[in-house]
């Protein structure tokens, strides 16, 4: 990769000029909203001309409504839509999706200052600000209002956004700076992409009345009309895509069964339940989080690549999404203590140096620290510096899984070992050894290293199980850190007198029992990584531990989505959510969101490139052609 093709993760923020307390763009020389009354302008131009209050009221249970917007700006249009959604939506499981692109996003401080102008939106603004992502390019899914509102923010060019995202809009807000000042947003190519993401009956509205824009939309099949503008603007335009109005096709078709109650399966079950979908959650063990997700502690982190490629983008998206997803469980099952990725040997020091040279990340995500600062942040003497992730930490995954499974719409069938899946009359028949068969319209296999045994395509998919043993360290035996330290091993802070370290990486053992040899391996490598961690000269390998088996793929990337056979034929109604390896705590929230999007027919949280990278048919042993 040449210097000219390096993609920095960080994206350039908006250059804001404040005039009489109002935000203007220094780059485009235009205001973000009307000086007369920006909120009333939004309601008049976008909400009323898209007939949103009436359309919200008429939604059926578990419908979704999709608004797409060109130019997120201060988020005022989004908050006004959210407020109208709260006021007019029926009291059912319907979900509002708001999809917006922004090439120059506001910093959190500028966003707060702008939204402080609208006190009546304060509770919504506070929730948006709490979830507002770091300024890194790409797709960000924000789950708000207890799942009733989902905001998909694309930080990047609007043409890139509409080319990457998968959705069909019910209404469009064509916002952004005036066409004369920001012509790229109003190109004919953008109008064509708007048409691609619309359907008969999709409406749109825009503050502009420029004839070129109206004609371009008419050429794409929209029936446009000119109407009086707001305030000092004489005219605006609004329209509808002609043709027979389609019915809402986002409602899921029937029942969903999830096999596997680890972190992936329970997050997916809770995600679907929050959207009003009834789920049957099945596991061979007697409780959730009893297999690989059952460790007392787990570190939540990823290792971001030196190159900002697709794999790095997926890891970064998963990292930021998981930080938001776990926040409701702070202090109970989620402990964001910060995490040090230690430059523990010369090879890792060199890798981190190249990483920092080639990438720019916001400091709220990560920043380099020297040994002295790292020692202060972790509360444990370390010989080297590293990368500090201030919003990472550790989880109690087993306890979290059990909490996630507690929901009125989740029917837990624990102690049920599924033997096979068989199609029957358009549904899937799950047979079990105890005879309690289950029939479902859709099935998600989230069974970790047991996945291959359940796939109804015997021998076609390849996965591998990797034995991992963690070691439990008594608090009195170590100088325990106050933050997570990762390197050759990871070490968590103590909880209830124990700290967890590990894990081994054994491709050739299927032994489910804790061994002294594996404990010794963990202890020796941890001691080499953190000299002086053990006050005594030696700690015995007879300490307690736990064994789990990770499910890993040949390319070490996770698997999520609709199954297909090795000829590329989709296996209708069967989905996979597996192959998360040792980073399941980080990848599972985002990929559960993605599979839930697919199951409900709602807009996908992953752009096309990332969706392609996790597609299940990568696991086929052979390919057609």
Automatic annotation (TrEMBL):
Primary localization class, coarse: cytoplasm
One GO term of the biological process aspect: tRNA wobble base modification
Requisite cofactors: FAD
Region annotated FAD-dependent cmnm(5)s(2)U34 oxidoreductase, chain positions: 259-625
InterPro entries xrefs: FAD-dep_OxRdtase (IPR006076), FAD/NAD-bd_sf (IPR036188), MnmC-like_methylTransf (IPR008471), SAM-dependent_MTases_sf (IPR029063), tRNA_MAMT_biosynth_bifunc_MnmC (IPR023032), tRNA_MNMC2 (IPR047785), tRNA_S-uridine_synth_MnmC_C (IPR017610)
Reactions it catalyzes: 5-aminomethyl-2-thiouridine(34) in tRNA + S-adenosyl-L-methionine = 5-methylaminomethyl-2-thiouridine(34) in tRNA + S-adenosyl-L-homocysteine + H(+)
A GO term, aspect molecular function: oxidoreductase activity, acting on the CH-NH group of donors
Subcellular localization: Cytoplasm
Family designation: In the C-terminal section; belongs to the DAO family.
HAMAP family per record: MnmC (MF_01102)
Protein name: tRNA 5-methylaminomethyl-2-thiouridine biosynthesis bifunctional protein MnmC
Source species: Marinobacter pelagius
């Amino acid at each position: 990769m040449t210097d000219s093709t390096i993609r920095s993760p960080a994206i350039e923020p908006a250059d804001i000029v404040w005039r009489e307390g109002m935000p203007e763009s220094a780059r485009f020389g235009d205001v973000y909203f009307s000086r007369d009354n920006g909120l009333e302008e939004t309601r008049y131009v976008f909400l009323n001309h898209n007939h949103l209050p009436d359309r919200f009221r008429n939604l059926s249970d578990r419908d979704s409504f999709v608004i797409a917007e060109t130019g997120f700006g201060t988020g005022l249009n989004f908050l006004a839509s959210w407020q109208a959604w709260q006021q007019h939506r029926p009291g059912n499981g319907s979900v509002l999706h708001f999809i917006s692109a922004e090439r120059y996003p506001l910093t959190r401080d500028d966003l707060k200052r702008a939204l402080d102008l609208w006190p009546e939106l304060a509770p919504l603004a506070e929730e948006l600000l709490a979830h507002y992502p770091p300024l890194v390019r790409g797709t960000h899914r924000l789950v708000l209002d207890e799942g009733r509102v989902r905001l998909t923010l694309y930080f990047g060019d609007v043409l890139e956004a509409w080319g990457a995202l998968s959705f069909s809009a019910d209404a469009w807000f064509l916002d952004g700076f005036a066409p004369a000042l920001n012509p790229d947003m109003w190109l004919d190519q953008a109008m064509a992409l708007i048409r691609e993401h619309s359907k008969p009956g999709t409406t749109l509205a825009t503050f502009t009345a420029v004839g070129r824009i109206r004609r371009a939309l008419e050429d794409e099949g929209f029936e446009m009309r000119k109407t009086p503008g707001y305030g000092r603007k004489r005219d605006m335009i609004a329209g509808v895509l002609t043709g027979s109005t389609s019915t809402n096709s986002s409602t899921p078709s029937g029942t969903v069964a999830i096999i596997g109650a680890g972190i992936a399966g329970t997050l997916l079950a809770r995600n679907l339940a929050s959207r009003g979908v009834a789920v049957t959650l099945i596991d061979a063990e007697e409780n959730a989080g009893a297999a690989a997700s059952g460790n007392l502690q787990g570190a939540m982190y990823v290792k971001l690549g030196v190159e900002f490629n697709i794999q790095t983008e997926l890891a970064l998206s998963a990292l930021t999404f998981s930080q938001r997803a776990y926040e409701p469980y702070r202090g109970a099952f989620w402990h964001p203590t910060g995490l040090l990725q230690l430059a523990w040997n010369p090879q890792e020091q060199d890798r981190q140096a190249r990483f920092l040279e080639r990438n720019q990340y916001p400091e709220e995500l990560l920043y380099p620290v020297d040994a002295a600062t790292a020692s202060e942040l972790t509360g444990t003497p370390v010989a080297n510096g590293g990368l500090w992730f201030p919003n990472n930490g550790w989880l109690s995954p087993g306890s979290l899984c059990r909490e996630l499974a507690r929901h009125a719409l989740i029917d837990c069938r624990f102690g049920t070992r599924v033997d096979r899946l068989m199609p029957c009359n358009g549904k899937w028949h799950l047979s079990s050894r105890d005879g309690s068969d289950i029939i479902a319209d859709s099935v998600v296999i989230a069974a970790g290293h047991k996945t291959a045994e359940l796939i109804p395509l015997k021998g076609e998919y390849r996965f591998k199980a990797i034995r991992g043993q963690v070691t439990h360290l008594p608090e009195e035996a170590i100088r325990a850190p106050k933050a997570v330290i990762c390197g050759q091993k990871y070490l968590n802070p103590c909880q209830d007198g124990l700290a967890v370290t590990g894990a081994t990486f054994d491709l050739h053992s299927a032994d489910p029992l804790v061994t002294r040899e594996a404990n010794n391996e963990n202890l020796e490598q941890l001691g080499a990584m953190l000299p002086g961690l053990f006050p005594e000269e030696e700690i015995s390998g007879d300490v307690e531990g736990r064994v789990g088996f990770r499910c890993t793929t040949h390319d070490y990337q996770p698997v999520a989505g609709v199954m297909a056979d090795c000829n590329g034929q989709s296996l209708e109604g069967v989905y996979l959510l597996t192959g998360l390896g040792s980073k399941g705590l980080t990848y599972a929230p985002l990929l559960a969101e993605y599979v839930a999007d697919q199951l409900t027919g709602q807009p996908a949280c992953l752009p096309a490139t990332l969706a392609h990278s996790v597609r299940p048919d990568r696991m086929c042993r052979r390919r057609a052609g």
